[in-house]
Design goal:
Elements lengths: L16 H12 L3 E2 L2 E2 L26 E4 L3 H10 L4 E2 L11 E7 L5 E7 L3
Parallel strand pairs: 3-6
Antiparallel strand pairs: 1-2, 4-5, 5-6
């Protein structure tokens, strides 16, 4: 039975939901209308991690992963806006998957930035 069509939403707690939503629209340019962000179609990874993973901070229960078209330009733009960004060599050891980096929102939530490899 194939009833699931894709991710329908991402919901998480925030100390200041309105300010954090505004940050995502201002910094990442997400266009959110009536609570909906119409995103571009593409792959979505669904992967539970072990409870003791060090892939993202231990005090966070989730990490958002955004598909991006030009990681290098996005990182430069984020840094110019004062956003903390992080790159690690080990995140990019398998170029067949693409390129990865991290940013953090004002509440410290990790945001993985993924530029998929060209097919």
């Amino acid at each position: 039975m194939k009833n699931i069509l894709g991710i329908g939403g991402v919901f998480f707690r925030a100390h200041d939901p309105a300010a954090l939503k505004k940050w995502y629209t201002d910094v990442f340019g997400l266009v959110i209308s009536d609570y909906v962000w119409q995103q571009e179609a593409g792959p979505t990874v669904f992967e539970p991690f072990p409870i003791n993973t060090d892939h993202f901070p231990g005090d966070k229960q989730f990490m958002l992963n955004f598909r991006v078209s030009n990681l290098k330009d996005l990182l430069a733009d984020l840094e110019s806006k004062g956003v903390k960004v992080e790159t690690r060599e080990e995140w990019n050891r398998m170029p067949e998957f693409g390129a990865f980096a991290r940013a953090y929102d004002p509440e410290g939530n990790p945001l993985e930035l993924w530029q998929p490899a060209k097919e």
